[in-house]
Amino acid sequence: MGPLQGIKVVEMSGIGPAPFCAMVLADLGAEVIRIVRPRTPVDPRDVLSRNRPTVELDISDSEGKSAVLDLVKHADILIEGFRPGVMEKNGLGPEDCHAVNPRLIYGRMTGWGQFGPLAHTAGHDINYIAITGALNSIGRPNETPPPPINFVGDFGGGGMLLLVGLLAAIHEVKVSGQGQVIDAAMSDGTTLLAAFIHGLRAQGHWNSQRGTNLLDGAAPFYDTYRCSDGRFIAIGAIEPKFYQELRVRCGLDGSLFDDQMNVDCWQSQKQALAGLIATHTREHWIGLLEGTDACFAPVLDWDEAPEHPHNKARETFLTLDGTLHPAPAPRFSRTAAAIPRSAYKGTLDEIMQRWNRQ
User: Fold this and answer.
1) What is the C-alpha separation between 345 and 286, in angstroms, rounded?
2) Nearest-angstrom CA–CA distance, 75 and 31
3) Which residues pair with 226 in a beta bridge?
4) Are the C-beta atoms of 183 and 108 separated by less than 8 Å?
5) Backbone angles phi, psi at 159, to 5 degrees
6) Is 156 helix (H, G, I), strand (E, B) or coil?
7) How does strand 296-299 pair with strand 323-326?
8) Is 189 within 8 Å of 161 (Cβ atoms)?
9) Cβ(338)–Cβ(29) under 8 Å?
10) Residues 211-214: contacts with CB within 8 Å, 24+ apart?
11) Diameter of the chain by CA atoms?
12) Is 23 helix (H, G, I), strand (E, B) or coil?
């Protein structure tokens, strides 16, 4: 099931963005084979490794290399997330793989990219987003930028960017008959994600001082607030009609809140709004604002999120073998994704027999 049924993928196992990309491909119906080093444990609770068999191969020896190339002969895509040159060193670089399958799409996932002064240096999400301007934009004014969870670099600017590249190349190969290499760098992808901010800067609507702009916590109508019970709510009432809805429902009828877009009023407006919100519990504000056009949501933790009525109605989460998973996304009207399977070990012989028959 799924729109990618019939697509075969060899995944050279790594961490973070490449497995995420492989997981989404498998969720959407592609047949993905996950290659790991010998004696690598397979944990069924590892969400990123779901929906595909794991096979142990030592690619540093001739037998392991030969087995990977046999899979590549039948594959549409190969994904790897090593430093530049590692696959070439093991005789599995793009030239080696295209020699046995010229139509192969060869996806390379790194932080710095395949070339450039930093290409061969170590790093993680926080480093890759630091050189793009994104990290400097996160946080409150006059404070150090906080280390963010790896959504921006690893998964948005990394795994998702690689996924887009692979799908575009799968379309193109139908026309040209030629495979190609996808160089997906998290530093590139993070910069791409920031296109909106670059546009605002060019128009004079955004500056480099974090915590002073419309969407980075400076505006009183676009921020998070602490309630009397220590929990938090999020407000995002940007448009005038939504801002007016917020004012009416919260009783913000004083002249202090009349000039919504006057930056000089934001600090005093925020202080007043924070004081008001702190007088009631989160449940109070849920009852008053949720489901209205005040652009409101409670800030939920990882345990609370699956229990929210909207998430339950859409079955946004599912449980596999006792482990909570995000459900496959997006949703397709005709070629719906199947319910995922927890990570499991497979055998090379079984996979080769199946791939040879197809």
Assistant:
1) 45
2) 9
3) 232
4) yes
5) -60, -45
6) helix
7) unpaired
8) yes
9) yes
10) 211/139, 211/140, 211/141, 211/142, 211/143, 212/141, 214/238
11) 77
12) helix
Please report the sign of the dihedral spanned by the C-alpha atoms of residue 134, residue 140, residue 143, residue 146. negative
Residue with tokens 């150090």: 144
User: How many residues does the structure list for the chain?
Assistant: 358
Name residue 318's amino acid: L
- Pairwise CA distance, residues 129 & 140, whole Å: 17
Tokens read off for 311: 């998430």
d(CA 47, CA 45): 6
Query: Model confidence at 357, in pLDDT bands (50, 70, 90)?
Result: confident
Residues whose CB falls within 8 Å of the CB of residue 311, separated by 6 or more in sequence, listed in order: 305, 317
| Cis-peptide, bond into residue 330, ω within 30° of zero | yes
The verdict on pTM exceeding 0.70 is yes
Separation of alpha carbons 299 and 276, rounded Å: 17
- Helices marked H in the chain — which ranges? 17-27, 62-74, 86-89, 94-100, 125-130, 161-176, 186-193, 195-202, 240-250, 263-277, 282-289, 309-314, 348-357
For 63-113, how does the pLDDT look when each residue is reduced to its tens digit (9 = 90+)? 999 999 999 999 999 999 999 999 999 999 999 999 999 999 999 999 999
Residue 334 per-residue DSSP state: S
Write out the catalytic residue numbers. Answer: 124, 154
- Whether 125 has a pLDDT exceeding 90, the answer reads yes
Residue reference for tokens 């989460």: 317
- Among 155, 157, 158, 184, which Cα is nearest to 169's? 184
Are 237 and 294 in contact, with CB atoms under 8 Å apart?
yes
Question: CA 318, 319, 320, 325 torsion: positive or negative?
Answer: positive
